[in-house]
Structures are given as structure tokens and as C-alpha cells.
Design goal:
The complex is a heterodimer.
Chain A: H1 11-14, E1 16-18, E2 21-24, E3 29-31, E4 39-41, E5 54-60, H2 61-71, E6 76-82, E7 87-90, E8 93-99, E9 107-113, E10 116-120, E11 142-147, H3 159-172, E12 178-181, H4 187-197, E13 204-206, H5 211-219, E14 227-229, E15 242-245, E16 262-266, H6 273-278, E17 283-285, H7 293-303, E18 307-313, H8 315-324, E19 328-331
Parallel strand pairs in A: 3-4, 4-5, 5-6, 10-11, 11-18, 12-15, 12-16, 13-14, 13-15, 16-17, 18-19
Antiparallel strand pairs in A: 1-2, 2-3, 7-8, 8-9, 9-10
Chain B: H1 2-13, H2 17-30, H3 35-43, H4 54-62, H5 67-77, H6 80-87, H7 102-111, H8 117-127, H9 130-141, H10 150-158, H11 165-172, H12 180-186, E1 208-209, E2 223-229, E3 232-240, E4 246-252, H13 263-268, E5 273-283, E6 286-287, H14 290-294, H15 304-309, E7 312-322, E8 325-326, H16 332-345, E9 351-353, E10 356-357, H17 362-370, H18 373-377, E11 384-391, E12 405-409, E13 413-424, E14 433-444, E15 447-456, H19 462-474, E16 476-480, E17 483-486, E18 495-500, E19 502-505, E20 513-516, E21 519-524, H20 535-543, H21 546-552
Parallel strand pairs in B: 1-12, 7-9
Antiparallel strand pairs in B: 2-10, 2-11, 3-4, 3-5, 5-6, 5-7, 7-8, 11-12, 13-14, 13-17, 13-18, 14-15, 16-17, 18-21, 19-20
The chains are: A alpha/beta, B alpha+beta.
Chain lengths: ~350, ~550
């Protein structure tokens, strides 16, 4: 017998948490590092996952474009495009990007060596989103999941119904501007698209901070209808109009010049009333770019994983649930993602 | 139920009064009888049924969910009704079950045996969506907490047609759930409902604040003056019903029925008629401060012990109905003569007359107002907020008619405090930092420290608010949820001159004192924070008699 049985690679040797983020010593790369590193694989363009200053970045074409818009063309030493579904070898490790359904260009990263498959999901959702590729289940041994909404209280309703709430409020209060807080990358474009799909064809006004990403989404072939940049002088005249702005601007000096504004906020956090009230939101729209509880559970089951690592969010609940399902589970206690939803797109 | 739930949900998020009214009007327009009537009853607190206990709801949910996940969820959400509404398992196959009507929920709650309640509740929760479950659980645990008073709900009903909210109040107590004749009347499809309530509420008459410039226009001889008591305005109404039984009710100034909270007052009403007066706590013949009265307010149920410890009393100042005769159209002095006669003829230990203040000129009245003890108020000085002026010939009119009644409050006390925390406001102030917590200096374990003594959210102009808001944003050093902590030390800090009506000891506050009605009277951009007042100054105000503080304390105008 000449054939030697190779011992399977231990998952924690293939990938483990380091201060910079998830580290793959065999491949010599980090995934979504929060500090500048030599070689980074990036799941998607949100600021807590995609940072500037790395030596080499491997990400989808869309994610690289988003990073260029945000940080400038020189955001890293060298860029490399990862094509969805294509297998690449880095060191002794095979990596493969698969759609995560979170925002434009968002991907899960499958890391594979010696028969061990670890799928790093990044942020993901299963709900329909007309502005990005839908999530694809990646069979794996270890599934690395977020848990932003990792409690069974989070069951997000269909987004179309939430957009209907906005349009109904517009009908009830035709003299009030409707200010919708939405994260600039992903949520804003999804909301605009959903409003269009609901049949609303008036111009939608957008805050200056959103303009570049709107242009980028358009150039990717996503039709967002007529989006008009709000100029300071126009604000007082926008009664009965929809105005999109980053969540931070809802409470900013900027928002005060609108006529008797209705404050709306599109986020998965809006599911709990206290959260909405704390932010002074009058029209909460539960629209999330993260998986809700049933989808987290469903996804974990569908991957067929025997082990679950939880990156960030409400990890206690998800770890508990996985354990009751016979799946070994542990929190990774990674720092720097999410920040309990305040700065995080949700 | 789903439509009602959606209304409650929207109301809970809406801070603006007019927008709340618009939401309710829209609901009343779109919802048929009798559903809208039950909704009105729920919002005006007019429903009577055995409330479900939190324990029952916990039991139902723990039968259906993993206890660890329930505990984690409850901890995160922080509200039992909402946690259960969010967690309740939904079976997609069972959605053919119709959501229950609000009317049938209320009918069942009113008639079902206690042992059947868990079963009914589970069925309803199965059939409702999340908002519906939340609203149902709020309804049956007895706390809607959506920021809608009974008065506001009635105002919305009035806005359906061209009647006034006071007209609704006039007929309200003769009506019963689901108010079909009421809706018919306001929508012009029926006659005004008859009020056959033997002890109805009559809308109260209110006073304008007196301005210095008013004195030139008003003649002292046209007015009588009374003390303005620092209690709560109440109306006691008694009459005989069709069966010949005596009915007594106690109402707040907005027409809320307070009888259950003050049963001893209803018993003490010694004659048939309607009186207007101030509810006070009187111990051993002395009127207690508002702070003491507050211990008894806002409690739906009252214990025998509370009645002994906080004996309620009405200081009466007007008579609206004398036996069965409505005398509101008579001049004040004639009503007063009838009132005095009624009180003297029917003595009660819980009822007395609010005395008149003798004066011949505004100067004399000013002296009495500055020193009520000398002006004839004796030992009750602490419970006096100022004077009321009433035209001798004034009829008793609902609302706030011009030129008839005035309130002339005492000058407030003032303290210079340092801004410590700020929170955002609501309505047109949303997005501005407009709720301010301020503190004064005291000696702490590590030297001088600021201790918070109160919170104020008005008193400043819109321009000043912009400046305050900018200060908060520029000087934020920390955040706790919605609260911003601003720089406040001996070198840097913003001094606010705070005006307030009174101050009491309060073990519930860190500083040990609680101000009554604090507001920001001036922003002292000029004053170094180290020169703000000290806690001892406030403590002296507590221990001192108000009159003495007015004379001796330099802080008081």
C-alpha cells in the first residue's frame, strides 16, 4: 500500500481569527481585514468590511468599483478581480467567490484545502433584492455566518409592504416631505428600486452623499428612474416628495429645512419599536440587507455544515440554536464589524 | 383588529398632536360601526374587562418557544408584549383563519370564563400578524401607551364633523360603547345624543395668564381674587338616577373619570349639584405640597392605606349646578353666594371653600400675592402658586374665554445650573437637542462635582435653541443611547438660569431634591461654570418656607 491517507486539514488551521480579521496562514491572506494587511480578500463594499490601504485586494469587479468610488483609484497596491464561481489557488488553498445577496457585488468566499471546506458568508440575505445577485448556498464543513439579526424576534416582512407604508403615508400627509434614512450603499438603491416597482414614478430626491453610488449602480445596468440631487436651496420646496439620505443626516442640521418632514428609516433594526423610537423615527420601514432569523437558520441547515462560526451580531442566540440542532458552534468574537447596528448598514 | 392595530402602531410612532388626530380621523372615516366605537372605547379607557396577567402571556410563549431564546429576546427587546408579538410562531398554512374583529375580542374578554382565556388568546394570536399581536397584548394587559389621551381621541371624533370637542364631552357620559349614536351625530346622520347621565361632566372654564400690561386695562373693583392652589383641578358632580339612586363622579379638567382613584371624595360630596375646585392632600388641616399629592395620582386602584396617608380634599371655588339647576350663566358673585350657602348648609370634612382675598387695589393684591401668609393664607402658603382673578360678572363658560378669568402666578425661583446632558426633542424640535439636564455643584468624594438636579425642555426661544443645539453638538464628550454628555467642569461648561415653581425633597433623585416645573429662563453665556450655584442653595430653599425664601434669598427675583 503506497497510498498514504492524508490527514484532513483542521478547520482552525485553515482559518482563524487574528486581530486584523480572519487569517488564512496557508494562503497568506486575510478576509475582510479591519486593518491594512498585505493580502486581503473582501466580501463586499461596506466600510466595515472593505477598508483602504491593503497591499493586494481580491474581490468581485463590483466590489472593487465600489471601493474605487469610496476611496479613490489608489485604495490598495494591487487589485485582482474575482469572478463569481471561478476557482483560484492562493498558496496551497483554493478560494471561490459565490453571490451573498447582500449588496451589489457581495460574495461569500469558500476557502478549501485538503478536503476541508470553509464558507465565509460575509454579510448576506435570502430575501429578494432586484439590485444584486441572489444568495447561493455553498455546501461546506464549516459555515462562517454573521448574526446581525440572530434572535427569533427578527422576522423581516416582505420589503414591498414596507415601501407601501411609505407611499400610504405620502398620500395621508401630502404636505410633508418624507425623509427616508437609508445606508448609501445597497439600501438606498434597493429602496429606490422598490419604490419604482410599486409604481411611483415621480423624481426621488437624494442626499449628496449618495450620488456617486447611485451613478455606479446605474452604470451596472440597474434602472433607478429619475433621481435628483437635493440642493440646499430646494429643501423648503420639497413638500410631498420622497427624499433619501444617509441615516446620520436624519438628525442632522441638514434635515431641518424640509417642510414638516416625516422621518422614515429603512433598516432591519426598525423591527423593534424601542429602537425606532430612540432614533426619533416616525415611519419605521423594516427593510434589511441581512438575513433574518428564519433565513439564518435555514441557511445554516442548507449548507450541511457540521460546525458554525459566528462573526458578529447577536451571536448568543444563533450559537444556542445551532447547538440544539447538533451543530458545533462558537462565536469568533471578531472586533470591528457592525458596532451594534449604529454605524452598520442593516 | 388588524386595522385598529395598524392605527395604534402609527400613533405610537407619531409625536405630533395634529398628525395623531389626522391618523385617528382617517381611521374613524374608514372603519365601520361598531368596530370604530370599540376602538374609541379602547383609546378613551372606557373598556371594562378582566385584564390578562403578564404571567399568562409568559406561559403561552414558553409553551411555544425555546426558553433560552425567549430570555435572550426579551432582554433585547425590553417589552413583554412586543417580544411575544415578535416571537409568536406563525404557521403559514393556518393563515386562512380570519383575524378576529376588535368587537368580538372585547365581547369575548367581557364574557369568557377565566379558564377559557388562554385558549382564546392563543387562537387570536395565531390569527393575527405581528402588529395585531402587539396591539392585542397591549390591549389586554391594560396599557396602550400610545400617547393618546381620552381628550385627544374625542377631539378626533369631533373633527369627523363640525362639532367641538367640548360638545362631545357634554354628551359623552350618557353614551356607551360602541357609540353608534355619537358617530351618527358628528357625521350629520343623526340627532345629538341625549345625555341622561345624572352626574355628567361639564367642560371647565380656564384662565389666561396675566401680563403686567393688563393692569392698566382692568379695574380692581370689577374682580374678585382667590388663591391659586397648587393641586389638580377637579369637578365633582352628583345627581339622582332614574331608579332614585345618588350618583357621584369626580372628573379631571379634561373630563376623565377619577372617581375610582379618589373614592373618599365621591362619598364626601354632601349635596346634589356640580362643583369646581382643586384637589389637594390635606393632613391635619394643612395643605400638602404638590409633590405629596403626586404620590396618589396616576394610580387606577387605591388602597385603604393610601387614603389614610394621603387624605384627599377639595377646595371648592365654583358651583355650576345647584341641585338640578344649571347656574353656569349666572354672574360669578351669584354663583359664589350659592356656593357659600351650599357649603355652609352641608358641612363635610373633605370639602371647604377657597377663601377670597381682600383687596381694594392692584397694589394691595400684589402685596398679598408676594406674601400669602400675611395676605390671609395662613399655614397653607406653600401650596399657593399665586392668585386667580375672576370678573364679578363672569358667566361660567367652557374653554378659555378672553377677559374674564386671569391667573397671576408668583414669581419663580431661579438657580444658575450647569448643562450636563442633552437629548433630542420631538415634533418641530425633532433633530434638535432640546431636553436639557442640568446640575449644581457639591462637594464630592474627590472634590467639587456637579450633581444633576433637574431637566427642562422649554423656556428658550427658537434662536436660543439653535445656539444650545450647536453647543451640545460641539461639546459632546460621551453618549449613552440617545443621551449626549456635554463638557461640564469648573473650566468649561454652559450655565443656564433655571426658573422653577417650587422645590421638594426627593429621595428618588440623586441630588435629593426635585424641582417643580423647571424651565430655562436665560442662557448665561457670560457666566463661568465654576460660579454656578451649589446644592446647598437649593437645600436651603427646600427647608425654608417659600415666603421666607422670597424675602431672604437673593436668587429670587
Amino acid at each position: 500500500m503506497k497510498i498514504l491517507m492524508k490527514a484532513p486539514v483542521k478547520a482552525s488551521n485553515l482559518l482563524h481569527p487574528a486581530p486584523e480579521g480572519l487569517w488564512c496562514p496557508v494562503g497568506g491572506f486575510h478576509i475582510d481585514p479591519v486593518r491594512p494587511v498585505k493580502r486581503a480578500l473582501i466580501t463586499h463594499g461596506h466600510a466595515d468590511h472593505a477598508r483602504a490601504g491593503h497591499g493586494h485586494v481580491l474581490a468581485t469587479r463590483e466590489t472593487l468599483a465600489i471601493m474605487t468610488v469610496r476611496y479613490g483609484a489608489d485604495f490598495c497596491g494591487q487589485q485582482q478581480i474575482a469572478t463569481m464561481g471561478e476557482r483560484l489557488t492562493i498558496g496551497g488553498v483554493t478560494v471561490q467567490f459565490q453571490p451573498a445577496g447582500h449588496v451589489l457585488g457581495s460574495a461569500q468566499i469558500l476557502v478549501e484545502a485538503g478536503g476541508m471546506r470553509i464558507a465565509v458568508s460575509g454579510d448576506y440575505k435570502r430575501a429578494d433584492d432586484p439590485t444584486c445577485h441572489p444568495f447561493e448556498v455553498v455546501p461546506c464543513d464549516v459555515f462562517v455566518s454573521e448574526a446581525t439579526f440572530g434572535l427569533p424576534v427578527f422576522r423581516h416582512p416582505p420589503a414591498s409592504g414596507e415601501v407601501d407604508k411609505l407611499l400610504r403615508s405620502l398620500a395621508l400627509f401630502p404636505d410633508r416631505a418624507h425623509l427616508v434614512g437609508a445606508y448609501s450603499l445597497g439600501k438606498a438603491q434597493r429602496i429606490v428600486k422598490l419604490i419604482r416597482m410599486a409604481g411611483y414614478d415621480r423624481p426621488i430626491y437624494i442626499h449628496g452623499a449618495m450620488e456617486k453610488l447611485m451613478v455606479l449602480y446605474r452604470s451596472e445596468g440597474i434602472d433607478l428612474g429619475d433621481c435628483v440631487l437635493v440642493r440646499a436651496a430646494d429643501r423648503a420646496g420639497l413638500k410631498g416628495e420622497i427624499v433619501l439620505c444617509p441615516p446620520g443626516s436624519l438628525n442632522d442640521v441638514w434635515s431641518r429645512k424640509f417642510p414638516d418632514p416625516v422621518t422614515a428609516f429603512a433598516s432591519g433594526w426598525m423591527q423593534t419599536r424601542a429602537r425606532a423610537r430612540q432614533r426619533g423615527v416616525e415611519l419605521p420601514m423594516i427593510v434589511s440587507d441581512h438575513a433574518d432569523w428564519p433565513d439564518l437558520c435555514r441557511t445554516i441547515t442548507e449548507t450541511g455544515c457540521s460546525e458554525l462560526w459566528v462573526t458578529h451580531g447577536q451571536e448568543d442566540g444563533l450559537v444556542h440554536w445551532a447547538t440544539t440542532q447538533g451543530i458545533r458552534a462558537k462565536p469568533l468574537n471578531l472586533v470591528g464589524y457592525g458596532d451594534d447596528g449604529e454605524s452598520e448598514p442593516a | 383588529m388588524n386595522r385598529f392595530a395598524a392605527l395604534l402602531d402609527q400613533l405610537a410612532y407619531e409625536p405630533r398632536r395634529n398628525a395623531k388626530i389626522a391618523l385617528m380621523v382617517q381611521y374613524f372615516r374608514q372603519t365601520p360601526d361598531p368596530e370604530r366605537g370599540y376602538a374609541l372605547a379602547a383609546m378613551t379607557g372606557s373598556l371594562v374587562f378582566a385584564q390578562a396577567k403578564a404571567g399568562l402571556i409568559r406561559q403561552l410563549i414558553t409553551e411555544r418557544t425555546d426558553p433560552v431564546l425567549f430570555a435572550l429576546s426579551y432582554d433585547y427587546v425590553g417589552d413583554l408584549s412586543e417580544t411575544v408579538a415578535l416571537l409568536w410562531p406563525t404557521d403559514t398554512n393556518a393563515q386562512s383563519v380570519d383575524a378576529p374583529l376588535l368587537s368580538s375580542v372585547i365581547a369575548t374578554l367581557g364574557s369568557a370564563h377565566k379558564s377559557a382565556l388562554p385558549g382564546h388568546l392563543a387562537c387570536w394570536l395565531d390569527a393575527l400578524d405581528e402588529t395585531g399581536r402587539w396591539a392585542l397584548l397591549k390591549l389586554i394587559t391594560g396599557g396602550l401607551r400610545i400617547g393618546v389621551s381620552a381628550r385627544l381621541a374625542k377631539t378626533a371624533v369631533a373633527a369627523l364633523g363640525s362639532v367641538l370637542p367640548d360638545d362631545i364631552e357634554q354628551v359623552w357620559h350618557g353614551l356607551s360603547v360602541p357609540y353608534i349614536p355619537l358617530f351618527a351625530w358628528v357625521e350629520g346622520k343623526g340627532a345629538r345624543p341625549l345625555s341622561d347621565d345624572p352626574a355628567p361632566y361639564r367642560p371647565v372654564m380656564l384662565a389666561h395668564a396675566l401680563e403686567e400690561s393688563d393692569f392698566g386695562k382692568l379695574a380692581a373693583k370689577d374682580f374678585v381674587a382667590e388663591w391659586k392652589w397648587d393641586g389638580i383641578r377637579v369637578q365633582a358632580s352628583s345627581g339622582i338616577d332614574r331608579e332614585g339612586r345618588r350618583v357621584v363622579r369626580l372628573y379631571s379638567r379634561t373630563g376623565e373619570d377619577l372617581s375610582a382613584a379618589f373614592p373618599e371624595l365621591a362619598e364626601a360630596m354632601p349635596f346634589i349639584g356640580t362643583i369646581d375646585g382643586e384637589l389637594l392632600v390635606v393632613r391635619d388641616g394643612r395643605v400638602q405640597s404638590f409633590n405629596v399629592l403626586q404620590q396618589r395620582l396616576n394610580r387606577k386602584q387605591v388602597t385603604a392605606r393610601m387614603m389614610v396617608e394621603y387624605p384627599a380634599h377639595i377646595r371648592v371655588y365654583d358651583l355650576l349646578v345647584d341641585r338640578s339647576e344649571d347656574i353656569r350663566a349666572l354672574p360669578f358673585v351669584e354663583r359664589r353666594a350659592r356656593l357659600e350657602h351650599a357649603i355652609v348648609a352641608n358641612p363635610s370634612s373633605r370639602l371647604d371653600l377657597s377663601p377670597l382675598i381682600r383687596f381694594d387695589s392692584w397694589e394691595q393684591l400684589a402685596v398679598a400675592r408676594a406674601d400669602p401668609a400675611l395676605g390671609g393664607a395662613g399655614e397653607d402658603t406653600e401650596a399657593i402658586e399665586g392668585c386667580m382673578l375672576k370678573r364679578r360678572d363672569s358667566a361660567y363658560l367652557p374653554g378659555r374665554p378672553k377677559g374674564l378669568w386671569y391667573k397671576w402666578k408668583r414669581d419663580p425661583m431661579l438657580v444658575d445650573a450647569v448643562l450636563m446632558y442633552a437629548q433630542r426633542g420631538h415634533g418641530r424640535r425633532s433633530s434638535y437637542y432640546s431636553d436639557f439636564t442640568f446640575g449644581v455643584w457639591r462637594k464630592g468624594s474627590t472634590g467639587e462635582e456637579l450633581v444633576p438636579v433637574g431637566k427642562a425642555y422649554f423656556g428658550f426661544t427658537d434662536e436660543e435653541l439653535v445656539d444650545l443645539d450647536r453647543f451640545v453638538r460641539k461639546h459632546t464628550v460621551d453618549r449613552h443611547g440617545p443621551v449626549r454628555v456635554v463638557t461640564a467642569n469648573a473650566q468649561t461648561g454652559l450655565v443656564l438660569e433655571v426658573a422653577f415653581e417650587g422645590i421638594n425633597r426627593s429621595p428618588r433623585h440623586k441630588s435629593g431634591v426635585a424641582m417643580r416645573f423647571p424651565r430655562i429662563s436665560r442662557i448665561r453665556w457670560d457666566k463661568p461654570s465654576s460660579e454656578a450655584d451649589r446644592l446647598e442653595t437649593l437645600e436651603r430653599l427646600v427647608s425654608a418656607n417659600v415666603t421666607q425664601t422670597q424675602v431672604t434669598n437673593a436668587k429670587v427675583k
